[in-house]
Design a protein that fits this description.
Blueprint lengths: L9 H6 L1 H60 L3 H14 L4 H16 L3 H14 L3 H17 L3 H14 L3 H17 L3 H12 L6 H14 L1
Helix pairs in contact: 2-3, 3-4, 4-5, 5-6, 6-7, 7-8, 8-9, 8-10, 9-10
Length: 223
Amino acid sequence: MLKPKRKITKKEIKQDPLLETINELQHKYVEYKPWIIRIGAAVLVLIVVIIFMQNLSSAKHLESESAFGRALVAYEIGDEENAKFQFEVLAEEYNSLDNGKISHYYLGKIGFDNHDYEIAEQELNTFVNSNKGKLLQKNAHMMLSEIYGEKGETKKTEGHLKKAVKQSSNKTDKFSAELSLAGFYLKNEQTGQAISLIHAILASKDLPYNIKKQAEELSGKID
């Protein structure tokens, strides 16, 4: 004989842990509903702002790429005035982007080639301090070493030559920078340091002919 189903009393319903939890959450929701709506709205606004800023940043990056490309073309074909103007615009309007920072290198190079060493020094220092354009860093330090060499600032000259060695992107560039540093040491009667560099270069394997020739010429000046 089947047993009759037991009726669940109101007291038991009230004591049910799951129902109590749901009931408590409902009360909490009602109590904190205004705050929940405010927080949700704030999060939504933040998401919209982030998406907008990302899109703006992406558009600005594309604009800088296009402008940098035009400036480089002008520079490569020898349209120096046009290139200089475009690099100046890039450096000013896109100073937070890589292309804006790298533009300082070209402005410094243009100044250096035209013997405007004051502008070259300013622009090249701005560039090297940005630590962008890794492949251009060595050349920038070499130009700065020449500028400071002309001004008789030996510590800065040596410092930039050492940085040129460190920033060289391949062995040939490194050897070339080391030879310049060795020449600096010879000029300033620091013969021991010059000899160490020259001997280390000549002891290297697969030495390019022009590097070997320059090293031997410097070595001959010591002997």
